[in-house]
Each structure stands twice: as C-alpha cells, then as structure tokens.
Amino acid sequence: MMGNRFRAVVFAAIAALCLLGLARAESLRGYNKSEGGYQYLTLGEYPCEEDGTAAPVVWRVLSVEDGQAILLSDMILDCKQVTFVEDEKDRENHNYPDLTDFRDSDLSHWLNSEMITALLGDSPLMQAVVETDQGRLWLLSYDQMADTKWGFDKSVWQHNRLTRRAYATPYAKSHGLLVDRSLGTSPWWSGTLRNKSGKKGWIAGVDGHISVGFFGRLNVGVRPALTLDLSRVAISAGSGSKDDPFVLTYVSPSAFLGPYLRLAEASVSDVSTQPAEQEMVLSFIGDLSIGDATQSRSSAASLTNVINERGYAWPFSLVADYFQRDDYSFANLEVVFTEREALKSGKKYNMIGRPDFVNVLLEGGIDVVNTVNNHCFDFTQKGYLDTLEILDNAGMNHFGTIYPGMPQESDILGVAEVKGVKIGMVGMSYPDEKRDFKRYEARIKKLKEEMGCQLVVCSMHWGREEHMTTIMSTQFSFARKLIDAGADVVWGHHPHVLQPVFFYQGKPVMFSTGNFIFGTMGEVNPATGIFQLYYDVSNGTPVLTELSVVPCETGKRGDYRPFELEDEKARQTCWGYMINKKKVAKMDNLPASFSLTGRVLVTPDGQLTDAE
C-alpha cells in the first residue's frame, strides 16, 4: 500500500510539471494589425503533395470570442464543385439542382464527412472542433469575406485585394484547380448563395475580389473554416508565427483545474489510486439516466429539479475524482436528451433529459457513453438522433449499433487513443447470440484489422432486470464467443443491480455493473461500483494486470449522488455480490479474497491471483 501511495504522489508531481509546460489556448488572439496581424497554428493533416502525401495543415486565427476560435486554412486544400454533377453537358448548361441553403449542397456534406475524416480522423483533437449549424467544417460567408475584424478588405468588387488572395497546395492544383499564371493564386468558394434560385455562388477570385460563379464549376478551391473549443486544447509548442505555428495538444475541459491541482491539496490516501506513467486505468459504470420519466420530471424531488437547483456537477460530486484521475471512463447512457416530449412511446416509463444535461457527463469526468439500450428510442428515432447530435456538440465520445440493416439503423463504432493505445468500442441492446454474434464479430474485426485498435470493448445491454445472480447460460456462451472473436472486455448493464464477474482466457466479463445514477427507479439493491481495469502499457501493448472495484451505493431519491462505502463490512458485502458461488465451465470465478480487498491481479498468461 505504501508503494502505491508513493508512486501516486510521484506521478501527481510529474503530471503537474507536465501541465506547467502547456500554455492555455485561451491566450490565442484573433486578427490584430497592431500586433502583427494573424497568429497561426497547425491542426490535423491533409494530402498536400501531388501524390497525396499528407502534411500538417496550417490555419489562421481569424477571431477569438467566448472561449472559441474561428480558424481559416491558410492555403486552399482541395478543389470541388458545390453540387457534384458528373455529366459534362449538364455542367455546360448549368443543369444542376437548385439550392435554398448551402448546407444542402454536396460540398457541405463532403466537408463534414470525407474531408473532416481525412483531416482529423481518430485524433482526440476532433473533440475540440465545434459542431456549428454549418457543420464542423464550413466555408466563409460573403459577409465574413469582407469582415475587417478578421483581416479582410471591406471592398469586395475591386481587384487586387491581397487579403483574400489564396495559394493552393500541389494536391489541390492536381485536382484541376485554376491557377493564375502571373499571380500564382487561385479562386475559392464562399458558403453563401448568390440568389434565390440557388444556381450561383460567391467566389473569392484569383486576385481577391469577390465575384459570382456557377456551382457546377470544377476549378474552384476549398478553403475550409472551423470553430475550435479552446477549453479542450493547450499550446504545446511554437510561437504562433507563420513559420513557427502553434502546435496544439488535446486536454479535457477540466485539465488545468482538474485532478492534478487538487492532488496538491489532497492527503496521501486520497491519491493512492493515481495511475502510474506506464499504466492505463479504464473505469466502467452501469446505467446513467440523467433525467426522469416523463410523468415524474416535474416533481420537486425529481433528478431534473435537483440538477436545476444544485447544478450540473451535483450528481457525480461525491465520486468525480475517480473519473478525473483515471485515463478513460465508460458509462451506459439510458436517457434521451431531447425536447420532443410529445413523441414519447407507449411504454410505462419514457426516460428524458433536457439537452443541457449533457453537462452532467462532462462535469462528472465521463469520457464515452454507450447510447444503445431499451430506452434510446423512447422518443422515436428523432429523439435518438437528437441525443447523438447533443453528444457530438458537447464533444462527448459515444458508440452504439441499433437496428442494423433496418431503416432506423444507426451503427457507430467508438474509437479513442489513450496513452498511446487505440481502444475500439461496439455495443448493442438485447443482443441475441444467434442473431447478433456475427454482427459483433464483423465489427470487432473491423476495429482491430482496419482501424488498428489494440483493445476492444464489447458493450452488452442484456440480462434480466433486478435479478442479482440470474445470469442466463446463453450469456456465458455469448461472452466466450466474443472473446474468442477478439474482444478484450465484455461490459454488461441493464439489470440495474450488480452481478458476478468472471474471466475467460484472462479477459474480464462484467455481466452487470449495476445502476449508478438513475432518475427513475424502484426499490432495488443500491449496491454499485466503479469497475477499474489496470493495464501495463510500457511496451506499447496493453497487458491487463488488475481488476478492482470501488464499492459504492446509489443515492436516494432527492439526492441521487452515488457515494463510496466507508464501513468495511458494507464494502465487503458489496464486493461479495461479484463472486459467483458455483463454477461455470471454461470460465474463472473471482477468488474468495476479492470479497476482502475488492481486487484481483492478473498474470501475463491470464491467471488470477490474490491481491494483498
């Protein structure tokens, strides 16, 4: 124990020093002529050379307001039509669809699918790019192109407007981009329509004046803009000049005021679980319903009212430090973030939370949520899509596969890079082995072989509600098949109570991680926990070394806050729920010592051993 405490204190000191080496991104400024004009930074990579070789993309900082920066790529990155018309005669005759809004164009959709993926892919910095009403990537409007606050000339018609002249990468030129022979500059699209017919759009011409161009033109460049959430990035290098642009590092919204600063004031016992430098800690909790059933949300004792009165940080306030100190936190989101209450289903309980309640997850330190469960369609597909959009706008990672192959299908695989380890995630609701095993198998294969994930988590919303020990035989066989197919963690939820934990081939199977925060729930056993997996990542490959559980209970109605158990007997009772009394074929039970320590060690060959 003393060794763990010493290691934690040392790590806290190192982490604090590392943070001191980062500059707050809030120090960025917008265009200022008296201070030398623009600042520059790099963000993402995009094909640059004619052969498609990628390079870091340099951006100008146009504006900084309210903790957000508006960036414009310094160069034209690509060359596209606004509407992707293939037929040459149609282009000559300007025979292409009318548009009422640039957001309906093929170019807008391409910016926010292919281009954003090529630019940032699985980079954590994707979470710092704000989802605006124009998307994550967008084009400057006509008015923005003439905004002197952003460094542009207010005159739009005169030629030789240096502020809007743009040079292009060899890659963009190779795609047919027009390049003026004498100036070496190229035209680039605006995101504003010319007139109501939608047949024309604005273009910054080769010499910088703004003119009109047909949306079917093939030789106009793409110079994207984006909005950056400065609370999620820090400056790790660079001076901000064009020759030495700032280099950004992703940080969680609370990194500068987070666990490392609090640790300086904490007692030694408070930091005993701080991860070591070569160790990765993943936390798993069960069901979160950040809201209430429609019939109870107006009650004075409802979770909705409690959050209104006490704030977003309240629900996790007694346990948030665990999620701030770990490396990545998983939760099952069993509520719909929407305002479409009129679309509720015919079920007895329809779980709804206000869209702004997503801040509870952010304040609590949760990093990713499974969105697929038996309540995700309580307000039809529209409510579910609202939830996904709200999570995306908040920068909250999420995953889930629902109704594959059907019109309501949503199939999102989660990917995150944690301490150099790429983690993949796939989840389904009420999965059936006969129907869904091949679906899981295909997605596990995709995550590992195509997406390069070293560790895959399978989320399973399954089992019988409110039954503490009833695990069906089909669940055991399904879990084994998933691990044989390449899964590294099987993480279950739905019964609302804790169930025994098993290991198979040295991999954990957590059949039910219980309730954690649930706005509407009957009288069920309040025992719950924070399930933590420790991996040695010193060699770049994750090797499981330990499973431990922080024993907790869910908060009572009117409070709702889960809290860690302090009484030793109560702690041991909670740990005891996770030990199965009977042997299950081909699977390993937790050792009896787990009921005393809440820990089990895993050897490199997958054997379970007692912890001290």
What does this structure look like?
- The protein has 13 helices and 33 strands.
- By secondary structure, it is α/β, with parallel strands linked by helices.
- It has two domains: 40-225, no CATH class; 275-610, Metallo-dependent phosphatases (Purple Acid Phosphatase, chain A, domain 2).
- The longest helix has 19 residues, at 2-20.
- Mean pLDDT is 87; it is low at 1-21 and 253-276.
Question: What features would you highlight for this structure?
Answer:
2 domains; disordered N terminus; 612 residues; Purple Acid Phosphatase, chain A, domain 2; 7-stranded mixed beta sheet; 11-stranded mixed beta sheet; alpha/beta
Quick take:
The protein has 612 residues and is of the alpha/beta class. It folds into 2 domains: 40-225, no CATH class; 275-610, Purple Acid Phosphatase, chain A, domain 2.
CATH architecture of the largest domain: 4-Layer Sandwich
Report the total helices: 13
Number of domains: 2
* Superfamily (CATH H level) name of the largest domain: Metallo-dependent phosphatases
Poorly predicted ranges (pLDDT <50, ≥5 residues)?
Answer: 1-21, 253-276
Broad CATH class of the largest domain: Alpha Beta
Q: In CATH terms, what is the fold-level topology of the largest domain?
A: Purple Acid Phosphatase, chain A, domain 2
Shape, please? elongated
Task: Decide which structural class fits the backbone.
Answer: alpha/beta
The major pleated sheet works out as: 11 strands, mixed
Strand content: 25-35%
